[in-house]
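We modelled the chain as a single entity of 322 amino acids. Its sequence is:
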Amino acid sequence: MEKRQLGKTDIYITPIIQGTWQAGKRGWAGIEDEETVNGIRAAVDAGITTIDTAEVYGEGHSERIVGQALAGQRDRVVLATKVFPTHLKYQQVIEACDRSLKNLQTDWIDLYQIHWPSGNFKSDIVPVEETMKALNKLKEQGKIRAIGVSNFSRAEIEEAAQYGPIESLQPPYSLFWRKVENDAAPYCIENNLSIIAYSPLAQGLLTGKFGPDHKFEEGDHRASNKLFADKENYDRVQQALEKLRPIADRYQCTLAQLSLAWLIAQPRSSAIAGARNADQATSNAKAAEVQLSDEDLAAIEAIGRIVTDPLDDDPLMWISDK
């Protein structure tokens, strides 16, 4: 799998990135540790050698599973994790990083990201200058190699970048959720930041596996996703999927692979794809082999707008009291 430069660093990431939110179990249903470990190992074997996690995913459980899965393979992979907004004061950042290093069973983190701006999830307001000071210190110590942000607006990235180099933005981004294109993406493209898209399959919608009357198991956070929870949105999703299926058939790929291929064809963009097991991870990797024509990229984009054009301007994907 051909790798891409992370920001302006000498780190190279894969266009498909292994996502491990579900590995934390909290907010997901039916997740088994053994299957997750096998999925991570299968992803690496299939060429997905960039792995993304976060301290908040299961309160460190995801990081520990990643560390277990990659034991003895650290030199093969690029590891990315995130510090939660409740830990953005200087000493809290230092301590959070040390916990993540221990969980991941590694001496360094390739990309360390601020998960959400301070103030989210009822956290204290911490000046980004203070957080960046800690991140710069960690970088000097060799504990992290690069700094990124997640869920930041353009203005928030610009502010953080005053205090040190920001190499990436991790936003929600998919064919069915494109709000980043109106705000932060142009800044990233102009300034050579990598766009590391999470939920590139719209939390599973773009797999086509959820029919018109789908109900989630209790405890699955996707039940509050606006694309699932709002009936009009969900009906438009089903319309769009029907129009995408013939294009996927032409390329002899799945809807998921088609959607990932569309996203990684966007400027500076890579896609974080989660996998519950080895088969899903291997299937995700094959998306990097799908080379879409300009005509089909335009057709796919037009179909996606059936879903995205009627959405309001709220950048948050979930119905939440955050």
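As a brief sanity check on the tokenised model: Strands lie at 4-5, 12-13, 16-19, 50-52, 78-83, 109-114, 144-150, 168-170, 194-197, 269-274. Residues 231-250 form the longest helix (20 residues).
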